[in-house]
Amino acid sequence: MKANVICLAESILVFQAPSTISKNASERPRLLVCHDFQGGYNDKASRRGYTFEYWSVCDIFIYFSHRRISCPPVGWNTAASRHGVKMLGTVIFEWKEAMPDLSLLLRGPNDLYSPLKPPLRFSPYYIPALIDLALAKNFSGYLINVELPLDLGFSVSGYTWYPDWLRPTSAAQLDEMQRNARRLRAWVALLRAEGRRRFAEAGRDEDEWTVLWYDSVTREGKLQWQDAVTQENVSFLEVSDGIFTNYTWARPSIPKIEKPDMPGGPSPVETAIESKEVQAAVLPPPPVDDNPHPALAHTVGMLDRARRARTEAYIGIDVFGRNCWGGAQSFRSLEMIGSRHWWQRHLSTFGQSNANSDKSSLANLGLSVALFAPGWTWEHAEPGVLPELKKDKKSIDSSSLESRAQPQRRVWDEFAELDRRFWAGGASTSFALSSNAAAEPHSFHQPLSAYFPARAPPLPSIFLKKAEEACVFYHTTFARGSGVAWYRSGKEVARWQTPSINTDSVLAVSTTSKQDEEAIKKQKEAEEDQARAHVLVGWTDAGVSLPKADATWPHPRAFWLPTAETEAQSPARGVALATPVPDKVDALEPRASVEVSEDVVWAGSCSLKVTIPLSGSGQGRLFLPISWVAIPTTAGGSEEMVIDATALASLEGLDTQRVQVALQLVDGSIHTGLVRTTEASDTGDQIWTNIRTSISIPRGLAAKSTLHSSMSPQATVGLILEFNDSTSAIVMHLGELYLGEGSSATEAVGTASAGSDDVEATIEKKDPMVITWPDFAPAAHFYEVFLEQGDGALGSDAVKRATWLGTATREHSRTEFAAPLAAIHTLLATQKTGTIVVKPFGSCWQGAQARCTLTI
């Protein structure tokens, strides 16, 4: 793109028919998550902080901050891609100080102004750079957020208007604002078109490129949030891939659309912070109203007239509840949008259509959702110091507001519990919220996952290329993006220590010091930082976040199966229809529990702990769903597909010979097969067992296992547990789960191949020291790096002699690792030499490694 400017008359993109733009629109509503975290992701990697873990219900993630351009960091981008979530950056212009930059964007760096007279023109100068950034950093587009009036100065100069006769609100000024709106529309249209073209040239799907518009400025160039799709903002939707509507639609204080009966609501100040008494009140779910909210009805009408898919409108919900239903009451906004009703009508359950299951007209809306600032579970007022309204309920104690503004020091476990309740539902049996935090204000009537079905993570790209060797297509250890330790083969290889500081003394800062105000402020910030490091001991790395047990939250939804004496199934195929027995299910489910355990871990940072009391249940078999997995139905030419499934578990109260891995298809059928168990590791406290099952499924049946026509085939992977009269309870730690392509149902199940020969790594001795290697296990989630000292190879017996350096998840490339040179010198202070060993993460990559000798 060499042109300095483009005339709008030459830009046919602006006038492209909406039906052409939206021809590939999705058939289902989507969930967009836009995370405005503390003004921009400032927590340190060396302490435990916020990470997003519920990727399976999210379709688009917007990395949002208040910088001009927000580029997703490597870890967040990797986690999103791993779970099949589209990651977008942000281009934002807000407040008056952004006016010069927006003017520069539209006129380009080579002009000081843009001519007033026709032809109207704009500059494409910065568009290639934005696309280059997305290609280089591997994200998929941008949210365009322009939150200032398009009063960009005389001739888009970015400076104050002149001469004197051009005063504010003059006809000339208003006309120029409209012209700037047309320039901005043309710029957005070109960004979208060029991005699609460049992605196609780079060998990527052009539909991956996405440009979303935020509901802010209007066609007249005014900053007027519409809270809906209206005549004022639909022209920006026409040149983009979708619109993110402002979030005050649910309880607006001022009507914003043409409907005169728009319901009013409390002022933003009164609803922003509620008293403990109000929060503690258990509010019933709102009744189903067959009449959609006027803002939503208006949006649907505008979309239909514009020939745009309804799913391209992302209805905003602010989790902080700024003049809308947010926080624990976010479900109220979702009920009005009708997300649950839409899915109840369109979701396939046990192979049957539910087209007539929901009679509510809300099921017809089909609108997507944009969830803004879900970091509320981490950021909102510190437990026990929620600001209270005065008795007259009309004003807020200013001292309470000041306490709200102070940096929070919530313990990480409390955040994890609130986040779990918000997204997945249920309450932990191992952690209770403090009494001051008041669990009742956080009694979520419906979690977010009740409104959007979980999707399986996509098949690895290397698997889709169909390499000759078998390939693992699903792998998880349920790892979160933060933790306090790291494990390998059931043994702890690293643990983060609590700083030796006194949190009571470091916060006692004398206000009578002779230091100036700025110095005192910096001192307080430093000491607060120390206190946070004490409370949040651990690490944060979104890049190690792996698929979760999304088929078993908030508590195991187990199915009782027929016993061996009564079931009518084919032993060769192992197919049984999951038919719950009401009396047993009712007795089992309320007492079963599932937790993320950081005490008993096989690999990474955590495991999945499942507890099932069985006292008095007698002999039986049950199927315990664990996670949604994608099914590779197109590979091979045979009618039967074979999946080799392996679970590594530590069990109490159950013979491992009575456990097998199984897959449940959408039609309800459960498939299992030949089982082989071997002891994987005995760490002294825990015995870990490999449970390997070769599962054969008819390929045609697997291809039909879809929840919705827009979704790929998927199934739930789980465990079949068989117990006898003497079994009082089952306690299981599931440490790892992986599935790979097999060749026949009678072959022994093995580990994935990534090449058994050592691969050469290279070292660049600078500070930091950079280690690189070829991508010899492309289907692995990431690599681990060790420094081995002494003789012998790095294996389960030698890991004590090897120092774990970290995971290759923070650098730009998955095949490089940076380590401080001083730390390496300290480790090699005695022997002066060692071997860098790089291994793919997970038990499924036995024998694959890269090695390089290091000498100082």
TrEMBL record:
Q: From what superkingdom does this record's organism come?
A: Eukaryota
How is this protein named in the record?
Answer: Cytosolic endo-beta-N-acetylglucosaminidase TIM barrel domain-containing protein
The scientific name of the source species is: Tilletia horrida
User: Record's Gene Ontology CC terms?
Assistant: cytosol
User: Could you tell me one molecular function GO term of this UniProt entry?
Assistant: mannosyl-glycoprotein endo-beta-N-acetylglucosaminidase activity
The Cytosolic endo-beta-N-acetylglucosaminidase TIM barrel domain extends over 42-486
